[in-house]
Every structure is written in C-alpha cells, then in structure tokens.
Amino acid sequence: MKEISAAVKSVELINQNVYQITLHTTELSFVAGQYLMIVLPTGEQVPYSIGSAPHELPNVTLYVLVSDSGSLAHKIVEHIKANDEITTKAPAGNCHLQSGILENKPEHILLVAGGTGFAQIKSLFDTLSEQNFDGKVSLYWGVRTAQDVFAQDWFEEAHKYSPFSVDLVVNEPSDNWQGREGWLYEAILADHPDLSQSVAFLCGSVGMVYGTLDKLEEKGLSIERCFSDVFSYAPRPEKPTL
Questions:
Q1: Residue 176 scores a pLDDT above 90
Q2: Domain FAD-binding FR-type: where (predicted)?
C-alpha cells in the first residue's frame, strides 16, 4: 500500500445509519474488490471496501455504517466531515477480479453481500458489467430489515439495465417490505440448487460469510472457488471430525 491524499467531495447520510462518502484522487489505482485504509490523525488505520469501480476514478465511493456515536466508524465520519482532504493508504485486499478466476471462464459468478459488504460486491458487479462479461452473474444482497436498505437508486438501475441478476433479501419481514424475505442462502439456493459450476465472492461479517458458505457448500460450491477478505483475517475454524 502507498499513502494517498484524497479530496472530500461529499458526505451524505443515505439511510438511518449509513453514510455514502465520495472522495477524489488522481493517485489511486486499484482492482475491483480491493479496499483502502482511512488514516486518522491518531495513526489509526481503518479499512473500507471501495464501493465504486476502477473506471469511475478519480472519484471513489465508500459506504460507512455508524452504529453509535462512540464507535470508531463515527470517529471516521466526523474526521472526514471536518477536513477538505484526508490521508488514505491503498490498495489492499486479495478478493478481487485479478485472482485468475476469469481466465478459466467460469460458467456462473455468484456475488454475495451482507450489509455494507455491498460496497465490495457493487464494485465487482459494476466492473464485470463495464467489461461486458458474457457469463452469468448473480448478485444477492442481504440486510436485516427494510430500513437497512441503501443505494436504492443503484439497485433500480441495475434491475433495468444490467444483463446480470440482482436480488435484495430482507431477513426480518415487515408490512412495508414486499420483496424477498428470509436468509440469504435460502434465496440463493432457491434460484441455484446446483452450485458445482459456480465461483463466489462473499463480503460481510465473519458469521455471515461462513454461515452462508456452509449452506452453499452443501449444494456443490467448492471452497477453492470462493473468495473473501474474511479468509485472510478470520480463518475458518476446522470442522469437527465425526
């Protein structure tokens, strides 16, 4: 990673607790799926997936979830709000499109996101679309409640104009949500009962990634054909031998 200065273009609250941050930098180059580090004056470095695609440079989009005013994420947002220019380090991450997987012409690419893990998956999706990838691509995004949905405009545009499929799954049902409900893996397996010819990129919490992966492996998805940053910082516990 190298140190990169970025101008702050906008900081916008786009739902109850997610901020969309737009930066501008001519110093950055990255591959879809990678992330950057926001460097605080204290020296703390906090990773965030790049939610925009490389072809959108010099603009860079981040999605930051702020759970409470005492969180590190709140500190990040306040730092960015208070400055016209911030310091980042980038690029980082091995869960990206130059992993060699596209060279093997996969039959089906599965993009799976939980919460703000949507950022990384969106970058992958937009890049595959920009590159006119001619294989099958399926994006599944899971959130806990309908109030947790953000980037609705992007989702509607993807539905209308992308050759790929996009599905939003809300875990907890409510009267104001008419779309798909339940667990993320349930929606994926309802549409794709045989995953033996699929590759997958997964982004979300450790529990979401491994919990979903456990279910998808039962239907033929191979761990060797899966990519996630979680694999690097939270290795999967070994399953007990029966």
A1: no
A2: 1-98
